[in-house]
Amino acid sequence: MEAIQQNQPPGVPPLELTGERTLPDVPAENYWYRRHLAVYEWVAAWVAGLRVADLACGEGYGSALLARSAASVVGVDANPQAYEHARLRYRAPNLRFERGLVESFDERCDAIVFLQTIEHVQDPAALLARFARLAPVSYVSTPNRLTLAPPGAERSDNPWHLREYNAREYGELLRPHFRRVELYGLHHARKLRAHDLALRLGWDRVHGALRLTRPFYDRFVPAIAASDFRLSARASLDRALDFVAVCHA
User: Which of 63, 154, 155, 212 has its CA 20 to 30 A from that of 163?
Assistant: First the structure.
């Protein structure tokens, strides 16, 4: 699998896929990138006109997307390679990047965005309390342990994750620090939902028997779009891929 970003702009160093963060421009990673992007697009609609901090921004694609609607965006990440890549690749008058630990971020803003990172944090309670002091609303997402890890396991085999949560545990983590928490679930939609149905009908046996696995997924995975995911407050959270919390201070 090609694990380095392809076709980067001149002067922008490509990043290598390590599993710590997702990346655009890596065809085999496209499912995870679009899964993250779907949430950024949803959040972007809610932060229009606001001053936003995108903490643990990674490669920077999410910060750049938020900057299309927000009044201003600061993307913060501790990794030196990610920071250098982001500041060189994504440029807009209302967008800047800082290198630093999210635990040290101390700038008041209108909204904090913190996606797919709370599971990496040693002391999540202290960090959430900081968010509540800095912004009136925080958007915090994490994967659902029930659909990420093997049945009955404490967590998945992702070495970067310190703890993973089910919906009840995630609510219990968040609610002590905020006046109100709204919890949404991310689910498959469109062609990913059709693929789920095909798997239930035995598609795994068919593509393996016909030796179509590699040709099919070499086409299918790069074709996945953000619109192949949907956020819902009504669908079962236990079956969600990720939880997206809107936390009101």
Answer: 63
Angle between helices 124-134 and 167-174 in degrees, nearest 10: 50
CB 82 within 8 A of CB 88: no
pLDDT for residue 92: 98
pLDDT at 207: 80
Q: Mean pLDDT in the chain? A: 95
Stated pTM of the model: 0.94
- Structure confidence at residue 1 as a pLDDT band (50, 70, 90): very low
CB count within 10 Å of CB 217 equals 13
Nearest to 229 by CA among 30, 47, 62, 69: 30
**Is the separation of the CB atoms in 89 and 45 below 8 Å?**
no
Domain housing 87: 27-188+230-248
Token pair in block for residue 242: 């990720």
Decide if 98 is inside a domain: yes
Position 213 in a domain: no
Question: What is the 8-class DSSP label of residue 249?
Answer: -
- Nearest Cα neighbor of 95 from 66, 121, 124 is 66
CATH code assigned at 112: 3.40.50.150
CA-nearest of 110, 108, 117, 247 to 171 is 247
How many structural domains are present in the chain? 1
User: Encoding tokens for residue 210?
Assistant: 């016909």
